[in-house]
Amino acid sequence: MKHKILRLSASLLLGGLALLTTAVAWHNWGDLLTDPQVARAPATTAETLQRGGYLVRAGNCIACHTTRGGNPLAGGRAIDTPFGTVYSSNLTPDNDTGLGRWSTQDFWNALHHGRSRGGRLLAPAFPYEHTSLLSREDTDAMFAWLRSQSAVHQPQPAHTLTWPLGTQPALAVWRTLFFAPQTFTPDPQQSAEWNRGAWLVQGLGHCAACHSPRNTLGASGGVADLTGGLMPVVNWYAPSLLSERETGLASTPLAEIVRLLQTGRNTQATVSGPMAEVVQHSLQQLTPEDLQAIAMYLQSRARQAPREAARLAPPSVRASVAEHGAKVYERHCATCHGEQGQGVPGIYPALAANRAVLLSDPTNLVQSVLYGGYAPATVGHPRPFGMPPFVLELEDRDIAAVLTHLRMALQAEGSKAGEVTPLQVNRIRAETTQ
User: Which domains does the chain have, with CATH numbers?
Assistant: First the structure.
């Protein structure tokens, strides 16, 4: 009797594993059996190529698929993740190392299903959760434009993900838990402009890839989650796009939002860090109509977000810290940003009443002081002023004190953000990969 129970239990366990394996396999490769695999010839009309190039730029594909100083789109750029390093692929039409032997169907499968030519599952460092929203016409146009570029022979380096995370079974399980191909469905209650903005933000723009918190397995909150979060490894905080306190999109005039996206600065803010790269390589190249649509969508979402609780008054700072911070500010910051943090309009940003200064998470401030603050060079702002790095000049206690001075002494009552400690600076310095 005991042996029969053991055999039955083993059979049930094996049967359950077989069902689970089948379910995971069907989730990741089932469309190969259910959907027609149509490899259409790439269109080569001027209109299609123009559209494809525009979509590639809107998706910021060139930035990720180009090494520093390397051939555009030839891949090989290292993308560091908490689980190891992923290297971008070669998107030029080289037959051996790029897309030369790919079909339009292969490219559609990559962007919509997150699956490479031959069925290999792609690592989610490639934001296929977002590109899945593109239509077949979109991906065909992008593929046609990529095929029109010069071929570059450059093999893709092997990923160095921690075993077994980079294996196909592990990726299949991850995708079953966190990814399903989807299409963009316009909201009939909203305008065409709003829906265009939603499609750009959720799809090609993949804004939630940065502006969304990630769980321990690296999954984001979804394509429409814009609640902000700390970007792993690069260690920048992507502020919540729904928070009036963090970004102020609900109250910022649309024209000012468009100006920030297009030039990297407006009367209230200047982008830096990873966002500067997005503006330089992608957003500034979008049409004014698309930038307006993005601004309208983001502002609508921000105005629908729940109101935030009033900021609590931070505890007082020790006199020695306040005095030291004031001296560091006077020595290194006041010449450009003004004695009271008022800045110089159009040149140096104001630090008083600056949302970036007042973020509850001081990571971006520490990063800017350590490694410098650089706005993107854009057509609308071709010669931005930058801030030099102080990583070798200032100690952790110096940086902590001066940032505390910015967040306390230079701010009005009711908007002070609290002290930054040397321990916080040391942690950010140690964890950042430049």
Answer: 40-178 (1.10.760), 192-304 (no CATH), 319-431 (1.10.760.10)
